[in-house]
Design a protein that fits this description.
Layout (H helix, E strand, L loop, with lengths): L3 H15 L6 H9 L6 E5 L3 E6 L8 E5 L2 E5 L2 H8 L6 H10 L13 E2 L4 E6 L4 E6 L13 H23 L4 E4 L4 H12 L5 E7 L4 H13 L2 E6 L2 H8 L2 H10 L9 H11 L8 E3 L4 H4 L15 H12 L9 H15 L9 H21 L3 H6 L3 E3 L5 H7 L4 H4 L3 H10 L18 H16 L5 H8 L14 H5 L8 H12 L3
Parallel strand pairs: 8-9, 8-11, 9-10, 11-12
Antiparallel strand pairs: 1-2, 2-6, 3-4, 3-5, 6-7
Helix pairs in contact: 1-2, 4-22, 5-16, 12-13, 12-14, 19-20
């Protein structure tokens, strides 16, 4: 693989030699595919413009073409103003409402587009022609035939290389790890300790009594790592949501295509105000080990004779369910058409289990992960902090995309690796248990409703959920100013994100 300086040199040499127009697309793809790390760049010359984003779209770039002029920027809102793009695209609005992001190159507005993960754009200034193509796709038809033992050994080498390169790039800067107590954040923290990186601290956030808080404190204490807990009080977070800074953050972070993250924004804002995070800190989270290692492959893959229809239905049910009242036959048909287009699928033929898993993961990589998930880094940037995504390293992506679905399903190989390595003793020890958080009065209420249902032989759980979720684990993230406002449409929502998208469309995408 090439370092950025080497790629810059090779690209310049390539275009000078071929004068852009005669440039071999195969040569260009070969050079770009060897670029490592997280980046985006624009290479401009008198005759052409080349625009490239990395394999996970960690630094988005947007573009618009009008009257043979290319408008390109890393700010969708600024580009919208300069290019004069103001007509919304109905399909995009629907996708955003149902998933929190748009499909493909679309943004919420017609004639305003985004480069997708692993894509490049060439604009010929002489002809006004624009060419878009991919140099990378999270897909592999060639799966490894190595034994588990050999793969685990290889994975160990890949992990060591990933963290060695990252730690070298940090140059001793203070590292802050958001610690949930799950596999991925625990893994990252343990790897830093294995490499004897001492300039390290962690933080955990959430309502008081949350199981993640107890587990995170236990892990930090056992590793003798400084740990901060940020208690989220729903009244305080609602005030933050309706603040001017949060409004500006939304305008900065959404890119007119993906809902911004609020949890990390709330937590780091508090840490910064209390001066608990150095200005030169680098935030390193666990995104997105669970996806990359197979944790999102649906159980449908276990059934026989799966079809394209089954695949599309699974994608819709998992990713496009923020508002169940929007899952009409008509809207499902629109989503189905756009999903098939994104995956270049036609007909309704049968799919092998491997191809079913490949297509499902490719869609999630290209859409949810590369848009909504990696967009979480905007919160760090807004507050002035650097970031790294070690679990999205080129080496780890290359390793996991060649692992067959059976060894990835339910993260089998990954969990085996963690258990055998048992880094810092964190993966074979008994941790504080997981449980559903809810205030005592909610437990009484739900118990009473359940009892009434048994007496009347009816299921009242949806009613119970409608009235109580506002006060449970995700209570700090509901943006409504009152409980009454929540009750108006709560029976159709999936999570607080359901309300975030509504607010974004009203506030930013007016």
């Amino acid at each position: 693989m090439l370092e950025p300086s080497e790629v810059s040199h090779k690209l310049t040499e390539l275009f000078e030699r071929n004068n852009a127009r005669g440039c071999s697309e195969a040569e260009l793809k070969e050079v770009l595919s060897r670029l490592t790390g997280h980046f985006s760049f624009i290479l401009d010359s008198p005759d052409f413009t080349l625009v490239v984003v990395d394999k996970i779209r960690s630094q988005p770039i947007y573009y618009s073409v009008k009257t043979a002029i290319l408008y390109v920027s890393n700010s969708a809102s600024k580009l919208q103003t300069v290019a004069g793009v103001h007509e919304k695209y109905p399909d995009s609005v629907l996708e955003f409402e149902m998933a929190g992001y748009t499909i493909g190159r679309k943004t919420l507005y017609k004639d305003l587009f985004q480069l997708q993960a692993g894509e490049f754009l060439i604009f010929d200034k002489r002809t006004g022609e624009i060419k878009l193509d991919r140099y990378y796709r999270f897909w592999s038809d060639e799966k490894s035939e190595k034994s588990d033992k050999d793969l685990l050994s290889e994975l160990g080498q890949v992990v060591d290389k990933t963290f060695s390169k990252m730690i070298q790039s940090l140059q001793g800067a203070p590292v802050c790890v958001p610690l949930s107590g799950g596999l991925d954040s625990r893994f990252i923290l343990a790897m830093f300790k294995e490499f004897n990186y001492d300039n390290l601290f962690t933080y955990t956030y959430g309502v008081k009594g949350l199981w993640e808080v107890k587990r995170a404190k236990y892990i930090a204490d056992s590793l003798d790592v400084k740990w901060h807990y940020i208690e989220f009080d729903p009244k305080e977070t609602k005030k933050l949501f309706h603040s001017l800074d949060r409004e500006k953050y939304y305008g900065f972070a959404g890119g007119l295509n993906s809902i911004p993250h609020l949890a990390e924004y709330y937590a780091l804002l508090r840490l910064k105000e209390e001066q608990l995070v150095p200005e030169n800190a680098v935030i390193i989270n666990g995104q997105t080990g669970d996806f990359l290692t197979g944790g999102h492959i649906p159980k449908t893959v276990l059934t026989q004779n799966t079809t394209v229809h089954d695949l599309v239905s699974d994608i819709i049910d998992k990713h496009f369910s923020l508002w169940t009242n929007l899952k009409t036959v008509e809207n499902r048909d629109i989503l189905s058409r756009n999903i098939r287009k994104a995956l270049n699928l036609t007909g309704d033929g049968k799919l092998s289990k491997e191809r079913f898993a490949n297509h499902f993961e490719t869609f999630e990589w290209q859409e949810r992960q590369a848009k909504y998930v990696t967009n979480g880094q905007r919160a760090y940037e807004w507050l002035g902090y650097g970031w790294r995504l070690p679990l999205w390293s080129d080496e780890l992506m290359e390793f996991w995309q060649k692992i067959d679905w059976e060894r990835k399903f339910s993260q089998r190989l990954y969990k085996k690796f963690l258990n055998e390595k048992n880094l810092c003793g964190l993966f074979k020890t008994k941790l504080p248990r997981e449980y559903s958080y809810m205030p005592f009065w909610v437990k009484v209420f739900r118990g009473s409703v359940a009892g009434l249902g048994l007496l009347l032989t009816k299921d009242f759980s949806p009613i119970s959920s409608k009235y109580s979720r506002y006060f449970m684990t995700y209570a700090p993230f509901y943006p409504q100013t009152s409980y009454r406002a929540y009750l108006r449409d709560s029976k159709w929502h999936r999570s607080p994100v359901s309300y975030w998208v509504k607010h974004y469309l009203r506030e930013v995408a007016k």
